[in-house]
Amino acid sequence: MTLTTPPPAATAAPTTAAAKIFNHPRNAWYVAAWDHEVTGKQPLARTVAGVPLALWRNAEGRAVALADACWHRLAPLSQGKILGNELQCPYHGLRYNSTGRCTAMPAQETINPSAIVPSYPVVERYRYVWVWVGDPDLADPATVPDMHQMNDPSWAGDGETIHADCNYQLVLDNLMDLTHEEFVHSSTIGQEALSESEFDVTHEGNTVTVARWMRDIDAPPFWLKNMRDKFPGFEGKVDRWQIIRFEAPATICIDVGVAKAGTGAPEGDRSQGVNGYVMNTITPETDRTCHYFWAFMRNYCLDSQTITTQLRQGVHGVFAEDEDMLRAQQRAIDANPEHEFYSLNIDTGGMWVRQILERMLAAEGRPSAAPAARGGA
Amino acid sequence: MTLTTPPPAATAAPTTAAAKIFNHPRNAWYVAAWDHEVTGKQPLARTVAGVPLALWRNAEGRAVALADACWHRLAPLSQGKILGNELQCPYHGLRYNSTGRCTAMPAQETINPSAIVPSYPVVERYRYVWVWVGDPDLADPATVPDMHQMNDPSWAGDGETIHADCNYQLVLDNLMDLTHEEFVHSSTIGQEALSESEFDVTHEGNTVTVARWMRDIDAPPFWLKNMRDKFPGFEGKVDRWQIIRFEAPATICIDVGVAKAGTGAPEGDRSQGVNGYVMNTITPETDRTCHYFWAFMRNYCLDSQTITTQLRQGVHGVFAEDEDMLRAQQRAIDANPEHEFYSLNIDTGGMWVRQILERMLAAEGRPSAAPAARGGA
Amino acid sequence: MTLTTPPPAATAAPTTAAAKIFNHPRNAWYVAAWDHEVTGKQPLARTVAGVPLALWRNAEGRAVALADACWHRLAPLSQGKILGNELQCPYHGLRYNSTGRCTAMPAQETINPSAIVPSYPVVERYRYVWVWVGDPDLADPATVPDMHQMNDPSWAGDGETIHADCNYQLVLDNLMDLTHEEFVHSSTIGQEALSESEFDVTHEGNTVTVARWMRDIDAPPFWLKNMRDKFPGFEGKVDRWQIIRFEAPATICIDVGVAKAGTGAPEGDRSQGVNGYVMNTITPETDRTCHYFWAFMRNYCLDSQTITTQLRQGVHGVFAEDEDMLRAQQRAIDANPEHEFYSLNIDTGGMWVRQILERMLAAEGRPSAAPAARGGA
């Protein structure tokens, strides 16, 4: 469905919703870790949607997510030892199996039947370990967001994790409107064409798409370099695209690229261009911090580890510019709890994202706004 | 008017006013920055009386103070770019002129008429940029406190800025009673004569003056060095003076010096002495931090940059001793919210300062005490 | 009296008492410092049971504990100067004698009779300076806990102070159940026999004793080394003991050692073994921090400074492992204020300790639980 009217919040009327601190849905799959981070050697501590977890692999190689606090005295299980199919508490040696049930206690034969720590549903997909911290009866692996480019053989690439000092919603805002590239990333991917060109916003179910085409323009430095990797010595104008696809609650995959100008890319023939996917999925940690997993996948020069590394380093530099901005924005929001926010045309995609998140939170019977900052105002 | 009775608070009765955390008047000029800190190259972030500001110079060279948060998403304008007469937001490129009105928005032709950030009155005087964050209708440049020695050709010298971890009122206390030099600064300017000599307190309008003369004493190390700069090989006794002048809300200029003993300095002939002015002006940042701008100006050896540097370094060392004490005092006040304070004779000047500040705050309809510390007690 | 029934809290029923943040009794002697830390050269700042103190020695060599805040403006006396029998404030020079009475004020002859800072009862015993911050009328030196091994000529050894980031009660828990050695200290003193062997819990008045004997076992590395210090070339099995004695509110002395197996140690003949005392006394600083004073005393090779140093270093390494665990446990308790705690058999000694502390707090008319963490949940 194509957007014909702006979403309710994108009007001239002020809306505090625009920058309030968003709650996160609990009934959702979130990435807890890259698959290689979870091993059978020692557990990994990570907080997902407010829940501290001890992540480990059991003797069958299956990833397990237990609450990171021993039933007995709350010692962190993530500092314990993996013993085959069991995780041993580092303080008094209580052992837990993959379901979280205690199987051994020190100096006693009988085990209290209440001795259980929560174990959370886990799915491994697209090189990530996804965890569901909400109602386990609703945890359907079919609802893991689509990130198939991560391990599809037609695509190659790599990424990193950013620990961002802001509410996850600010990262979604950042990615749903790429106009900011012109100002934040002017030396790499920014260019004036971004704020001058039109864009198209559509939404359907729990997805929102923002598409922008810029025709017959100069390639910015990042893209010129990539064109020359595929077409040595390339010079000339390009057609550039950015097709942003959000899938609730927090995954945004962006189809990006440039092709030689006028060779038919907008109509579907991308053979004279280079194409990448910026894969992003954001995991709320606390109300004011998140884990931001990203990768850059490409469909050319698949075997070149050099290009994989160059692209990862390049995007690393670009995203570092965003980190500073997001941290500053979070601080300003906490310092101005009464600010009335207005939205611009460029915010249309982000406004639809908020609509979907508010619907999900309402279905859980929870408000969309997290509590105001302690120490704000 | 000479003080004939002690101020109400300087009696034997306890007064919590003596060390409560003071509010700061809003209707007042505060120094935001040294003039050279505010440029047309990149904006400066500084918080004045609780208000975060982006300070910059426009194309005419005029200093401008805008609120440091973009109307759109609160991104810090102090991280933006100065483009002639406009400041551009670092996130989405909205531009503001010197009055704070938005003049450009990305990807749209029309500009929301509400798109304004606050712009604050600015005066440049005495090598400082002064800002008024209160009611703009009351911002009269004639009420900027007198610090004329800062750029009067009969005086030479330089200074620095201290970021002090205490309420601004504690710095005022520190400067209104120089008895503390004997204990805090014993290796440089302290001497027993300070607590043994009498002093005279007067007040008029929004000023308070504390004058102390010490006759026929040894010069402490700092002053002996200065006498020898002007009178090579000087030895012997001196007459020493400290005439402290407070001008509300937070400027204290101290006429200090020594002259050869018995040559008539107390009567007005300072020709056989050296004279300096310790120029201090304190800008509240938060309830518990402040910007402390100081300089040391002298009226001899005007052309010697060496002496300017030596004096600045010397005072730097002295004031570092105060910083530690002020931080410790602030911590102790927060930890003892119920403490009943009594005042000594030496506090008379400081008590009159409080009276004037309380009067200013009452005129603004605000209490004199800021909220107690979170985490105190 | 031997325990025949478990203490009330050591049942299958959950008890939030098990890990709540404990208040500390005020009417008790706590170690403020090692005797050598308190000198007549410069005062020592230390907070005991929530009270910031300035500790110093007067001209007679007697240790004095004054509140660390000047009567006048709360400047820290611990940064002042010791002048014979008086302590001088570092800010304005007010002087206090050993009873806390002000004896001199700057620039005035008369001294306000209210000018007093609290002075707390002090006892020097067992190489420590003990302070009583509660009701001074109850401060009886006869109630200082027994730590006579510290300066009894039959024992030799040394120790250190740990600043632990947890409520003092968590350290008591840690020491009352040494099963944790098997998991936390597996490379030095831990061994499986610990959780496999039985133990005996008794209590009387304000003491609790937990005794454990492990017969005919291998000596763990720490003890094997010590046996060989006394019996060069020793090999073979040992009988090992741990006799933990708690004396309220926070002293735990542990009789530890091993002897050649079957030579009669359990029956009282320890001549074929090595014996040490782990001397521990914990001083609450705040609700969530404490000073943990420990020493390791031995009754063999008394003259060897090498062995003293080796033992101090060895225990230092062991206790560093506990520090990490205690900090993690405190953080988890604050993050899980609603957690229901259950106790295991191994917690029996710790449960009796809680009973005694609750009795002491009730006698002071105070609740046993300190306020929940700000920022918890």
CATH topology of the largest domain in chain A: Naphthalene 1,2-dioxygenase Alpha Subunit, Chain A, domain 1
Binned, the helix content of chain A reads 10-25%
Major sheet of chain A: 7 strands, antiparallel
Low-confidence stretches of chain A: 1-19
Report the span from N to C terminus of chain A: 41 Å
Q: Tell me the number of helical segments of chain A per DSSP (H or I, 4 or more residues long).
A: 6
Structural class of chain A: alpha+beta
Can you tell me the CATH architecture of the largest domain in chain A? Alpha-Beta Complex
The percentage of residues in β strands of chain A lies in: 25-35%
Shape of chain A: globular
N to C succession of SSEs of chain A: EEEEEEEEEEEEHHHEEHEEEEHH
Name the CATH homologous superfamily of the largest domain in chain A: Naphthalene 1,2-dioxygenase Alpha Subunit, Chain A, domain 1
* Strands side by side in the biggest sheet of chain A: 12-18-17-16-15-14-13
Give the rounded overall mean pLDDT of chain A: 91
Biggest protein-protein contact in the assembly = A-B, 30 and 24 residues
Which oligomeric state applies? homotrimer
InterPro entries (chains A, B, C): Cholesterol_7-desaturase, Rieske_2Fe-2S, Rieske_2Fe-2S_sf, VanA_C_cat
Organism (chains A, B, C): Saccharopolyspora halophila
Pfam families (chains A, B, C): Rieske (PF00355), VanA_C (PF19112)
Keywords (chains A, B, C): 2Fe-2S, Dioxygenase, Iron, Iron-sulfur, Metal-binding, Oxidoreductase
